[in-house]
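so i finally got all the pieces together for this one. its two components total, 352 residues if u count the protein bits. some of the lines might not be protein, just check the labels. i wanna see the whole assembly predicted at once instead of chain by chain like last time, that was a mess tbh
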Amino acid sequence: MTFVLGNSHDLTRSLLMPSNSIAAAIANEFTEADSDIYVSSLIALAFLLFVVTVIVLALARLMLARLNKMQGRTR
Amino acid sequence: MVVRRRIADAIAFLFASAATVFGLFWLFWILWTTLRQGLSALKWGLFTQMTPPPGSDGGLLNAFYGSAVMILLAVIIGAPVGVAAGTYLAEHGRYSRLAKLVGFLNDVLLSAPSIVIGLFIYVLVVKPAGHFSGFAGALALALILLPVVVRTSDEALRLVPDEMREAAFALGIPRWKVTAQILYKAATTAILTGILLAVARIAGETAPLLFTSLNNQFWSSSLNAPLANVPVVIFQYAMSPYEAWHVLAWAGAFVLTAFVLGLNILVRLLARRGQIR
């Protein structure tokens, strides 16, 4: 993905401009991170990504559980 | 009424077929592109020579070797734990709250971004050791493989009919023996299928290897040193300015894609054999 995304550090509104994603930022910059704060911020980015995953999954689980409850019930 | 159903059925069939063709179209396009671009490097030397310095000829032997070692080690580390955890989820903790929680956490791990896992192993193993190593790479791959194996072996054991368990218990066989000698036997093909699928999943992982095993231009079989591997070689060579390296990257990508495709076909064959039995 990092090949085609463009790795830009600006925030643009257009989907057609080079941009960046968390995963691509970590992959490209981690080996170049020279200061502790740089490394820490990249690891913090990874943490954020993980949190997003957990939230999305928890939501999915919640929806499934509600569907299960509805089963066998006539509305 | 019947006509309407027939029409609905035909439309649904059309859309389903179109979706299949759409998916296959991309797969074959990818295979075709990698084959065409990497064709000039697809010769015997690809498997017998080392990765070359810029400007000279070479192959990807060290990368193939490193990838094979790390995948094998990941399976050795991850598969037993995964099968054991799957057994717990399907057999011993089927109705317990803890198992539900474990199942959810396993789902989280299953979809955790692979780069996060790479960073985790970096902080845990690479940083204290002070250098990248093939062992760290294998650990990262094992962490990605683990939840896949847990999920698939859980499903595999759940597919074994309960009547089989009841029959075994009725004969007075202790629980551990039922699991080890009857259920595993019935679910072997499905569990193996899951492990193979997990291998297909980790074979192409680049992100977690970037921070753990890195890459090695030379032949090295030490697990305590940076180990060459196919995905990172592709990553680095594709971004390089050298034409010969690009071709090698394409060839590596083709072999990798073909390998994963072959593995999936093997899984299908195994699954079919399991059904007939």
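Chain A has a mean pLDDT of 75.
The longest helix of chain A spans residues 36-70.
anyway lmk what u think
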